[in-house]
Fold this sequence. Notes:
Blueprint (H helix, E strand, L loop, with lengths): L5 H21 L7 E4 L9 H14 L6 H7 L4 H12 L5 H18 L9 H10 L3 E6 L3 H10 L8 E4 L11 H10 L6 E5 L2 H9 L3 E5 L14 E3 L7 H9 L1
Amino acid sequence: MEIKSLKSIKYDILSQRKMLRGRLSYKGVNILKAFIFDMDGVIVNSEPIHYRLIKKTYGKFGIGFDHEEHKKVTGMSYLQIWQRFIDMHKIPSTKEELNEVHTVDLLDEIKNSTEVEISKGVPEFIEDLCKNGIKLAVASSANRQIIEAVLERFNLRDKFQAVVSGEELPKSKPDPAVFLKALEELKVNSNEALIVEDSTNGIKAAKGAGVKCLAFLNNGENPQNVELADIRFNCFTELNYEKVRDFLKK
Length: 250
């Protein structure tokens, strides 16, 4: 009779665990471990402010900015938006210069404006996820200063284990890099997480990362094409831990 070493026994146990995880995944049983939030238009209803400030910058150069154009750039990083603006209209400035001025104006609005409001039901939903041990991340196209300012204003910073800014990556939404980075920082696989987004570009990024995506409709604010999303909802009061956990299992 062969007597196995302790090292060999440990190896066999680990191998069996890996096989079990593989079987569970094969059968479609996905366990929710993480939830990733977009920020603008999701955690906070900030799109009206973004629209107004972008329009202000366009106006300085005598260029119009309407809601149709806003739909096209929603979800992009500001560096992407300003580069697009420069390329389309031959603007004699750099994206960094435009972004610096815009960031100052936006930070002032976030810290002081009553127009920036947290989306209804978000604090309660986040608390429910935290109570059930779900890791949280913000993955936004906004720069880190803006993300941190929003989370601090609404006392949410300590709820998130990861904050990822699209401006710190080579590509932002609709490229999936921002969500792949969030998965990496949270140390979870794509089938162990859910993403909530409100923009077409964001949903494309989520799907590119291989993660199921919930589309936040926000009762028609800044309507976007959300047909690629796996599920749609109007208000965060419709969600709780049990519902999103069960949704991932499907």
